[in-house]
């Protein structure tokens, strides 16, 4: 964990506010401060189009009076003391919540491992501009790219400070470097676009500018002159970038808040087989340099890796303190905190790789659709019904053929999970990661 003198100051501010809230009549309290600094440069056609700089400190004070609670927030931590009396008064008039409360003291983090989340490199605007221009130049050099959709380079440093009346005080920081490019190929009404991006906690782990630009350009060119396919039932293969959407859908359906409300199709599936045998999906807040890593959660609970799905069985849900109490379970340290109250969320969520290489998987499929892009938000987590616009390539004789677009794919997540086949090409590119996935028997709505 990286602790700067400024974080030490904020930890002291947070601890003092908790003490003030107790003196003002609160039975319990916690304070979270979210700090962020960011710089991003976007270029288009060889010129800087936009420069974004931001700095923020957002403080949230939550106080409990019995089972009643209230939260007040400010973006000026130095003025937060004036909010204490108001917060306590609000809590006294709030409705009772039988599940509200701080984390169990025995579950609080006592050690803070170094997860190597901070890169001391802080690029200047000039350096980011140079990187963005190099990314765009590499993209424009790809034969067939007709124009630029823009390229960008960015850096950010963010942190969280948490203090509770249960005896917890902690803080951590994390940096992120990123590069992206959007390429356009074709002309007139036949134009197609695609993008590529790379981000990591440390600059040395980010793909170089030329690679990002070239991948964006190549992907756009390959999509030119797509066709529509006939409406049919077929096997869908999701490239890794698109496959992460299915893992995120699982995380939403396995979120403790949705389970407690009864608004998830997985509400009665804990401990039951949901995926095909052999499927394993893990969540690990302790991955070194992970983009979702953190030494403790939004309630101060120690993080631990666990399997959300083990051998196809839904082993657990994502739980914070309140949802765990409502469900008669124990928090597994998945409370996320921005401002206000905590809510369950994943950290570094990973669909573990299977045995087949992606080429072997395509060969087994024979004929079907290889999806590279999904359009819309068509996953209903209450029923599991799934329908999204898609684009990609038709699979012919076990290999990628020509591009296809203007189609919709549909199914039901419960049935899709049960038929999922996973390849071995896992790469860690974000906080949610997956290898290539194949699912048979989905509906393709085309012409």
Helix percentage: 10-25%
How many structural units, i.e. domains? 2
What is the terminal-to-terminal distance?
55 Å
Q: pLDDT average, as an integer?
A: 95
Radius of gyration, whole Å: 24 Å
| Overall geometric form | globular
Strand order of the largest sheet: 3-2-1-4-5-6
- Range of strand content: 35-45%
Q: What are the low-pLDDT stretches, counting only 5+ consecutive residues below 50?
A: none
Q: Could you describe the largest sheet, including whether it forms a barrel?
A: 6 strands, antiparallel
Please state the structural category. alpha+beta
Query: What is the string of SSEs from the N terminus onward?
Result: HEEEHHEEEHEHHEEEHEEEHEEEHEEE
Task: Explain what this protein looks like in three dimensions.
The chain has 447 residues and is an alpha+beta fold. The chain has two domains: 217 residues, PmbA/TldD superfamily (PmbA/TldD fold); 222 residues, no CATH class. The chain has nine helices and 19 strands. It has a six-stranded antiparallel β-sheet with strand order 3-2-1-4-5-6. The longest helix is centred in the first third of the chain and has 19 residues. The model has no long low-confidence stretch (mean pLDDT 95).
Key traits:
single chain, 447 residues, alpha+beta, PmbA/TldD fold, 5-stranded mixed barrel, 36% strand
Provide a concise account of the structure shown.
This protein has 447 residues and is α+β, with helices and mostly antiparallel strands. 22% of the residues lie in helices and 36% in strands. It folds into two domains: 5-221, PmbA/TldD fold; 226-447, no CATH class.
